[in-house]
Amino acid sequence: MDMMVLVQVLESTMRLATPLLFACLAGLISERAGVFDIGLEGKMLVAAFMAASIAFVSGNVWIGVVAAVGVSVLMSLMHGLASITFRGNQLISGVAINFLAAGITVVIAQNWFRQGGRTPSLSGNARMARIDLPFAEALRDVPVIGPIYHGILSGHALLVYVALLCVPLTWFMLFRTRFGLRLRAVGENPAAVDTAGVSVVGLRYAAVAICGVLCGLAGAYLSTGLSAGFVKDMTAGRGFIALAAMIFAKWRPWHALGAVFLFGLLEAVANRFQNIDILGVNLPVQAMQALPYILTVVILAGFVGKAIPPRAGGAAYVKEH
Amino acid sequence: MITAKTARARRSDPGMTQTSTDMMRQDTAASASYAIELRGISKAFGPVQANKDISIRVRRGTIHGIVGENGAGKSTLMSILYGFYRADSGEILINGHPTEIPDSLAAIRAGVGMVFQHFKLVENFTVLENVILGAEAGGLLRPSLAKARGLLKDLAREFELNVDPDALIENLSVGHQQRVEILKALYREADILILDEPTGVLTPSEADHLFRILRGLKEQGKTIILITHKLREIMDVTDEVSVMRRGEMVATRTTSETSPTELAELMVGRKVLLRVEKTPARPGEEVLRVDGLRLVDAQGVERLRSIGFELRAGEIVGIAGVAGNGQSELLEVLAGLRPAEGQAWMNGQPLPLSGRDCDAQARRARRIAHVPEDRHRRGLVLNFHAWENTALGYHHDPLYNPHSWKMDNAAIIRDTQAKMDAFDVRPPDPHLKASGFSGGNQQKLVLAREIEHAPDVLLVGQPTRGVDIGAIEFIHQRLIKLRDSGSAILLVSVELDEILSLSDRIIVMFDGKIMGERLPDQTNAQELGLMMAGMA
Hints:
Chain A: GO terms for molecular function: transmembrane transporter activity. By secondary structure, chain A is mainly α.
């Protein structure tokens, strides 16, 4: 494989990993607070639709992003209402959000744009512009640094860099701030938080809202950065892959970065090499495209060692002594 | 009760027949020497009235005990004081000031700290992180942790509260975890410290250490409320003691002027036998004989070494020993729960200790019943109704299962009702889930199930662990009654008092071996203690 191909694959990995990274951190924060969220997928989908349609209508992608975040947070709060306030089952609430998202996006898109459940293609300011990092042009021909800096790192949409920045931010928030300490505590033993005089409900809502913001960004990037418009079911299971990455990373932000890059890489490889010959056997394109999903199954089946989720995860807090 | 007394005092005082504002001022002045005063606190959980019109005063700088049976409402009352629950009605005064305590934050602000029976610690956090949680010095952790580290060092020196600040909670012993809970309260500058059943999980030496800490805190002027059902602790450390019974406050006494007997009576509401009354045993035929019993566990450790004894009809044989010396394993082997090597005979017929015919069902068919040590894990299915639990293990009984495939639920429910009445299970509701009963009543349910089938041999493990005084007395009487009706009972207990008062013969186990056999009236706790330690 020559250098050029490698750079291309890694460059595409960066882009493909971005929505996964947002979603993975979203799930991580929510689950660290004890609220399981399998509705990442649905929130991303609604956000993707919202971003594309509002960007198309307004002609400004950033208005679309704000709308996407708004609707995603709204759905998160629905999840919060069901699972925190009314102590409903978190999995069922998440499933409901996924179904709701899959249906409502297509129905509204069809009604609004009449293009078979998709939004019109975005162009110009309605799409995310690529950003050239400083000195990228100047360093272009420097060996090693050039391909990495210019070829792989530079030239992505702003949200790609925001996603990368979210990793240290999440880490700092979780492990270096008061909010993070309380957030982790509420996912491990809410009674400890309650008796310490801190609101369990408040903390969990905060975590769920942050999850909503990140899912919104993931969806917005998907439809306005990675592609140029919304297509039916365009998340294609990325919300679940993000969950797998989160478990793979054992709920740790830096490891999450590594995990989503692994998934992104598999997807990039599948896109780049449509057919592969291994020892004379021709591997069809479908097999390559299935790779991220196969890895997901392998991870969720527990082949990556013991992953211990936050102890109070999945359960509503009921006072007991 | 106390409000009634105050009212009486007021009536007898001629200067006090005036306006309500005057009376309130008088009240406040009177309560200034009390750290805590509760007036008319009531709290119901659904149909259960946990606290009924409770009033209590706790003097500043004292250790005040609150005793009562399980389910008397002690923990609920203290949880109200700590803002964990809200009272339905009533008033809380702290240092003489009426104080609203809607949540724990308000309690902490008012200077109240609480050490719950089940610790409220984050297991995979460090000691420091647990201590600062909710009381951080600012938005960032580093300065908060540094501040707490310094303070912890001071507190450790002052009160013997040594804990490694960087240790993870899950790696600490329960005794140390409890110290962390106390540190948490002191870090929040609590003046009033509530401890709920603090010694239930502690070893005797850990408990002694805790009491030293509490006395130290008292000397520093802190007020301590100690909830317990162990009278010995009350007599040892408290200055005053209040007694609760079925949600009501029945009495408050100065500890030096009361006795364990009086307190026990107040708790139960009638005279309690602290010693078991029984006639001498009239042992009959040999029922169960065990010889050369040996058990090697999965790790290859020998847990039982050539155990041999016999059990005769109409006697209680107690097995004494420090927990973990093979008694539990012996019970499990005899109950058919784990296979072992060796020989056994039941009523003269060989009893297989391993192989196909060695399970709990086969044992029941041979008229061996078993009351397991851990009633939550082995005695009951907590999520099942009482009547379903009653049928467990006896689901082939023709009374319950007349057609051999369809259970007669109505018959089971009727039978459960009868058993509940016979064993005074409260509440006597066969449709209540097992988890809805207090520990003592759960144990009565298990005992009723096993005893009412009149077994030839009853294997009993820790029959009164976590059971309140009234129920202990009842359970002991039932065991004696079963013995007098001609059953043989093998009793395993870590409570030496229980072994001494119930048994007709005592076998002491140490390290999987039988150290010797004694008659209860020819031995004492000291001798048995030495044998249990493997020194005799």
